[in-house]
Every structure is written in C-alpha cells, then in structure tokens.
Amino acid sequence: MSESGLTIFPACGCGFNRDNRKTAVLFLKSDFVLSFCELVMGGKNGLEPIEKTVIDRAVQVIYRPYLADPRPENMPILSDLHAALLAQHIPEADRVAQALDLYVSGSLNLFNHRTNIDITNRIVAFDIKSLGKQLKKLGMLIVQDQIWGARDGQPQPGAGDVVFLRRISPAPKGRTDGGF
Q1: Which position among 26, 45, 48, 66 has the lowest Cβ density within 10 Å, counted as fewest Cβ atoms?
Q2: Domains of the chain (ranges plus CATH)?
Q3: In this predicted model, what pLDDT tens digit does every residue of 34-59 receive, in sequence order?
Q4: How far is Cα 106 from Cα 48, in angstroms, rounded to an integer?
Q5: Please, which residues have CB within 8 angstroms of residue 7's CB and are 6 or more apart in sequence?
Q6: Dist CA 112 CA 103 (whole Å)
Q7: Which of 84, 66, 83, 88 shows the shortest CA–CA distance to 75?
Q8: Rounded to an integer, what distance in angstroms lies between the CA atom of residue 122 and that of residue 162?
Q9: How far is CA 1 from CA 12, 15, 91, 160, in A?
Q10: What is the pTM of this model?
C-alpha cells in the first residue's frame, strides 16, 4: 500500500474466503467494516448503537451481489458502502457517510479502489511504511484482516502460515488494538 496508488488494497474487499458460508462472511465483513468506520469516525466512545446498525444494514446490501456472484469485479468498495449508507435516508447513516467522504472521494481515497494485488500468490508483502498518519491505522487494520482471511482459507488441514514482520514499530493504541 502506498499513497502513490501503485498498489491498491481495498478496505471492503480484503480477507474474504469463498469457502465460508454467506452468513459467516457477512458477520466477518460487518465486524471488519464496523472497526474500519470506528477508526474513521474517531470519537471518545466509538460508534453509537444506531450507527452500528446502519453500517450493518449497508454491509448486507453491498455484499449481496458479490455473494450471489463472487467475481472480483463484484467485490464492494468503500464508495458502495457510502452509497448504501446514504440510501437509508436517516441522520445516523448520513453522519457515517459524511465521515467516510474523505476516504471515498476526498484526498485520502487510497482504499476506495479494486485491488491490483494478486492475493493468491504464495508470497504477498504488505508495506504500509509510506502511508501517512491518517491512513496508517486503517492500513494496519486492512493488513490484519487480510492475514486472518488468508489463514482461514488454508487449502488443507495442518497447512501452516509464516508471517514475517520486518521493522515493527509500536502499534498505535486505540479501541481496535485488541488490548495489546
């Protein structure tokens, strides 16, 4: 990932494993998108319950076409989430959509594109070093989701993963850090 856009990894399109059942996929994607929106919206107390509900509704809407026909061109991106939120026509959904504007159509729209990374490669390297301060936490969340998604998709029982981390910097503290 880089701000230059040479390699793109979409926020909504990572960590998906086609072998999962549809309900499991929606659960996992909703959880990821809620974490993403919580980082975007910031705030002292995180997302309000109604905001979580409108996000979950939008996730169900945007993943329906992809689950019916799981081709890369059907994978939702942030602008699909943005549109699904606005389509609800309620203030809480509008507030979440407004918070996403910077990442959908603003100057930080790096994650609002289809991926150009072949995640089926045997080796995939994620480099978030060049991401600016505003994108670093989001990039870390996306990479974490992708790693867990790849782990869930192991082709055979007992197949192992090796994750090599180079130049680890202290993880930012926040509501999505898992308490580490």
Answers
A1: 45
A2: 22-152 (1.10.8)
A3: 999 999 998 777 899 999 999 999 99
A4: 24
A5: 1, 116, 117
A6: 7
A7: 66
A8: 11
A9: 15, 15, 33, 25
A10: 0.73
